[in-house]
Amino acid sequence: MKAKNLILPFAILFIALFFGCKKDNFKEIKGVCPVVSSTSPFAGETSVILNKVITVTFNEAMNPATITKSSFTIMEGSTLKSSATTPVLGTITYSGTTASFTPSSPLAPNTNFYCTVTTSVKDVNGNALQVNHVWNFSTSTIPAVLSNDPLDLATNVVLNKVISAKFSEVMDSTSIIAASTFTLKQGTTPIAGTVSYKDTTAYFTPNNTLLANTTYTATISTAAKNLAGNSIASERVWTFTTSKIPTVLSTDPVNLATNVAINKVISAKFSEVMDSTSITAASTFTLKQGTTSIAGSVSYNDSTATFTPSSNLQSGTTYTATISTAAKNLAGNAIASNYVWTFTTSKIPTVLSTDPVNLATNVALNKVISAKFSQVMDSSTITAASTFTLKQGTTSIAGSVSYAGTTASFTPSSSLQSGKTYTATISTAAKNLAGNAMASNYVWTFTTGTIIAPTVLSTDPLDLATNVALNKVINATFSTAMNASTITAASTFTLKQGTTSIAGSVTYAGTTASFTPSSSLQSGKTYTATISTAAKDLAGNAIASNYVWTFSTGTIIAPTVLSTDPLDLATNVALNKVINATFSTAMDASTITAASTFTLKQGTTPIAGSVTYSGTTASFTPNSNLLGNTTYTATISTNAKNLAGNAMASDYVWSFTTLSSPPLGPGVVNLGTSGNFAILTKTGISNTGATLITGDIGVSPIDHTAITGFSETMDATNQFSTSIYVVGKIYAADYAPPTPTYVSTAISDQETAFTTANGLTTNVIVDLGAGDISGMTLAPGLYKWSTGLLITNAGVTLSGGPNDTWVFQISGDFTIDNDAIITLAGGAQAKNIFWVTATQALLGSNVNFKGNLLAKNLISLNTSTTVLGRLLSQKAVTLQASIVTKP
User: Fold this and answer.
1) Chain centroid to CA 564: how far?
2) Is there a single domain that holds both residue 598 and residue 725?
3) How far is CA 274 from CA 211, 215, 250, in A?
4) Is residue 536 located within the same domain as residue 398?
5) Which of 5, 103, 366, 731 could make an S-S bridge to 698, C-beta 3.0–4.6 Å?
6) Has residue 129 got a pLDDT over 90?
7) Contact 204/198 with Cβ under 8 angstroms?
8) In this structure, how many other beta carbons lie within 10 angstroms of the beta carbon of residue 845?
């Protein structure tokens, strides 16, 4: 192509020499005619760089004055010269025999340009260029990143990902592999790696596996150039997020579960969708009993893996389940480590005891037959007609079956026959909650007694009693349960004063009949009560003869106020005090709540409030707190009357003085009915060693099997149990009514108290001691930590008055080291202290702790730790030879 480009200049030179160099009106000066000997770019050149300086070289020295913007032009156009109408701006210089055109800005990419040197240019002798010299060239393209992998904002990217970027054309590989061209960062931290280039794609290979669930930023800088040296127009930046490391969220059974059904299908739920092919592999999900592998099949659905044993598990046996690191998510990420949990299958249920016992004699004809099991049973298997049966010889006895707690009861439809032997049977249809049946039928026999007429064992008032209250309810207790329909009849239980019948109503409960007069009895009168032979027991046996007794009422005695709270002349009374007065007898509530009966004044000014009455106590609750260091006068007026209508003899007046200043601190947190418990949890209470708890303990919604290490004894009512380790009662959600409602309400109140205490914000002290208050003395107040809280063996002192309060809000774990003591000074009381942790509380050994502890999760007490307070956990409480006393 260069040879062709030289033909035209040499031809022009030949013509000039032969014919002369005169042009138009220029004076000819003999010599060589100027011609263009070369250009750069050359004619037809492509892929010219954008910052190219266009040059024209002549065959001789030229007159610079003739080389101007009008004689040396560059036009931008399309493929046709005629379309090139846009001039390129630039500067022209001349040196030696070469003129240079430097564009003011880089040339447009991928564009045709047309260059012209006109005949107005002359050499130093004035000889002109004989013909316009015209040629064209085209510029190179601007490279661009066409695509990247991963895509921008991609998620769930694999951790071993090689990041790549594909360009629009072949690039200069040396510009790509330069350290600053292709980079990867996590936040502002560069990620080490190597860059390679092949075809039109650049690759960034991290030196190490990327972090899980992390966002990375990849960048291709403008240092990336094509073979023509053109850089990409701007940086290419994109982000992506790696996939998570999968975890096992939950298992069924849970870790350390007991009483698991022997036909249990074991499952594990993952935090995300998994690669099912990695789950169903035999080595991924295994079950062992000791070192022995259990045969079974594995399946996967949604995010849950399931292991189905080939045959039933063994009763009362511990098994270990394992999800290995072969389990991977869809991104190919494996769980971080083997997930292992254990559980124990339930035992085969047995009948522990029966009532009547086997071979019992003289059994009552109205006897309800019961059997107590070794564990909680599936009630639906107990109430079935074929499970609990009763026969007299080969004759089946009709009746109904019920189940409560761990006891099944058979109630015959009619009284048993006298002097007969009966056979009771619990069949193997009886199953526990795990679905395990008894090993064999349980059979026992008993014999009924002969017919014995019921008797009246006792009465209230006693026969010939004196000074009986005028509002007395008259009671008669029988030797056996009676037919209530025979008791409530008007002719069965009567009361007379002389020959005059007294109107009233009769009720019956348990073995006691009650006669309630319609109005108060008369003072100083003798009354006669009678139970007639119409009264019959459940077997239809009537009492042998009418039972008659007499009593005399007392003279009218005016009620009195026995005690008050505060006491007369009491000082330092709390400003939120509810004033109480306890009477010598039950009062007519309608006469107590009247505004004029129970009043409170400060001097002559009445204090607004409300009056209530319960038992024998009237209470006055001021509408707002009392004033500090102020004397108040309370009065019970003679409007107060007892149930017999007798008024007090005179007004009862007492006075008291309030605190000189209000109690300090955020105020007492209302625990509601949860305050009735020393320990209350949702998932269980466990004990090892000689623990002593003073106060009630309870669990809900979990049943009593979650209370371990207490050797409980069930009360006859099945409403609570007792233990040698508990000075109080034990309640559980599966005990007889009303216990389930009682404990569930207490749990609700506990959760409300937790939320209330955590929501306090007034005058809060934040992050005292950076989460370590060891050795400090703390005044009453509201304290909050955004982390956990530590008390070392240096202990902590809470100093304040008997009505001052402390609330401690702890966002993390509450940890108390061995031998730490919480000391109360200045009269401070444990009942007014509230430790609230959003996670768990861990008390070491020999700790002396005081206050109410409310925890979202576990409360753990190590050996010989003493607590004066309450342990209220929304999960579990564990004890080791601990002492807990409810304040």
Assistant:
1) 46
2) no
3) 19, 21, 15
4) no
5) 731
6) yes
7) no
8) 16
User: Number of folded domains in the chain?
Assistant: 7
By three-state DSSP, how is residue 752 classified?
Answer: helix
Residue 813 has pLDDT above 90, yes or no: yes
Residue 511 · residue 482 · CB < 8 Å: yes
671: left (phi over 0), alpha (psi -120 to 50) or beta: alpha
Residues 763, 706 within the same domain: yes
Q: Specify whether 805 is located in the same domain as 701.
A: yes
Give 291's DSSP letter.
Answer: T
Is 380 in contact with 431 (CB distance < 8 Å)?
no
DSSP-based three-state secondary structure for 865: coil
- Retrieve residue 185's tokens: 């960062």
Q: Strand, coil or helix: what is 142?
A: coil
**CATH for 129:** 2.60.40.1220
Q: Hey, what amino acid is at 626?
A: L
Domain assignment of residue 663, yes or no: no
**Co-location of 152 and 130 in the same domain:** no
The Cα angle at residue 90 between residues 86 and 94, in degrees rounded to 5:
130
Of the residues 124, 139, 154, the one at which a domain ends: 139
**Could you give the count of Cα atoms lying within 13 Å of 349 in the half-sphere of its Cβ?**
32
Distance CA 410, CA 416 (A): 12
Cα–Cα nearest to 21, from 176, 172, 125: 125
Query: How far lies 749's CA from each of 669, 672, 674, 676, 856, in Å?
Result: 11, 5, 6, 11, 14
Q: Is residue 189 in a domain?
A: yes
Identity of the amino acid at 97: T
Q: Which residue has the tokens 């979202």?
A: 856
**Per DSSP, which regions of 532-602 are E strands?**
547-553, 561-565, 570-573, 579-583, 598-602
Question: What is the domain range of residue 161?
Answer: 145-242
DSSP H or E segment with residue 581: strand 579-583
The token duo for 407 is 């006891």
Across the beta sheet with 570-573, the strand order is 570-573, 652-658, 631-636, 598-602, 605-606
CA dihedral over 375, 381, 386, 392, signed as positive or negative: positive
DSSP code of 675?
A: G
| Amino acid (1-letter code) at residue 46 | T
User: Are residues 317 and 228 part of one domain?
Assistant: no
Are the CB atoms for 600 and 620 separated by under 8 Å? yes
Which whole number is the average pLDDT over 214-230?
93
* Among 221, 242, 263, residue at a domain's last position: 242
Sign of CA dihedral 332, 334, 335, 339: positive
Task: Let me know whether 577 and 616 are in one domain.
Answer: yes
From the list 697, 686, 691, 689, the residue with the least C-alpha distance to 722 is 697
Burial of 737 (0-12, 13-18, 19+ CB in 10 A): exposed
Does 447 fall in a domain?
A: no
Is 0.85 surpassed by the pTM of this model?
Answer: no
- Tell me the sheet residues that pair with 464: none
Residue 233: how many other CB atoms lie within 10 Å: 12
Task: Evaluate whether residue 444 is within a structural domain.
Answer: no
21 pLDDT band (50/70/90 cuts)? low
Peptide bond before residue 412 is cis, with ω within 30 degrees of 0: no
Cβ neighbours around 618 below 10 Å, total: 25
The per-residue pLDDT of the chain, averaged, comes to 90
Q: Are 771 and 790 in contact (CB under 8 A)?
A: yes
The mean pLDDT of 473-494, rounded to a whole number, is: 88
Assess whether pLDDT exceeds 90 at residue 643. no
Residue range 75-89: mean pLDDT, rounded: 73
Residues 420, 416: Cα–Cα separation, whole Å: 8
